[in-house]
Amino acid sequence: MRIVLGVTGGIAAYKAAELARQLVRNGHEITVVMTKGAEEFIRPLTFASLTGRKVITDLFSSASPDATLSSAVEHIGVAREHDLLLVAPATADVLAKFAHGLADDFLSTLYLAFDGPVVLAPAMNDRMWSHAAVRENVAVLRGRGHALVEPGDGYLACGTVGPGRLAESEKIVAAVEDALRKRRTDLVGQTILITAGPTREPVDPVRYISNRSSGKMGYALAEAALARGARVLLVSGPVNLQPPARAEVEQVQTAAEMRDAVFAHLFEATVVIKCAAVADFRPATPSAQKIKKTSADRTLELVPVPDILAELGDGPRNFILVGFAAETENLLDYARRKLEGKNCDMIVANRVGGDGSAFESESNEVLLVLRNGETIPVDRAPKRVVADHIFDQIVKLGK
Ligand code: PMT
What is the pTM assigned to this prediction? Predict the structure, then answer.
């Protein structure tokens, strides 16, 4: 397999040489990407000698104008050509960059363009490792489904004893082999149309009716599908999220626009997942001008918008149809009614409102409701992990 080994600037950087050697011995092709900080601790030549391959050290090469252009897009090529991204040692800095999507060097840029399995082996001072900022970044990265090889306890370079030492090479190599084994390609050849986020129904040029959907669940589905080899068409309402690399995205505002976008791409889809929180009603006559506080009419007349899921379920089809049900009560009962009423193959039922609401949160807990009467509970987990459970069922439905 082809593995990128990202080496970042910590005292444990020298241990990455042994790691590279073990991975090469296991038959892998290793491309080492070093950050500027890593070069302070170990020379690229060491890795070039161990791997027999060029070591990447910079986002922009200054060798020639042409080289600059090709280097500027090289991270995309490297992302496409490799099966796994391992970062060892991973400093607090690189964890923060990955968690927040900063892209100011080759490794962080590569990360954003990479949609395969990621294994991170952090190493840092024990106080840094236990700092809330690092804990939160680690939680975000785990939430994306990345494997974290916990640092070990022991004597640290700063003279203290505690957790923060880079895990033993054998442990990191085992995590890499495990992630490669689990690497799933069961959605290769599928085109998955996913709707995500809320819709906005205009009241006037400055106001609208909408809901609390952040798009996190839908975007997690898109990430999971891409990681398993699918082509993803993402029809997204207005959200503050960066769409996953390689998703083909169409941005919409209203339910009517979402309906048009879905039906425009339907002929390509083998699976449709309606995760978006679509409005049920819209103002009958949106005002062309801002409605004044002094306006005599304080009543908003609402009319129903198209029920996209019901329309998709109406009549014969050659795609798997998955709907969501967002309920504040009677979760299973309402989900079954939606399964029947909207003629879906599966409903993903989740609770909204109150503690543990599916809206806006990083995690979710769902019931998968199937046509054969089966219901499969998925315990609370990061949305990216829940997304994989949903695809496990979709794969079974397709067999
Ligand atoms: O975006 P997040 O903050 O991560 O939150 C995730 C979520 C709560 C939005 C998501 O998990 C979810 O439950 N999405 C469906 C929300 C919803 O609209 O549920 P509903 O029970 O009102 O609708 C049932 C189904 O009909 C849904 O698949 C919906 O997309 C679809 N529908 C609804 C109305 C409409 N006009 N057209 C539709 O297609």
Answer: 0.75
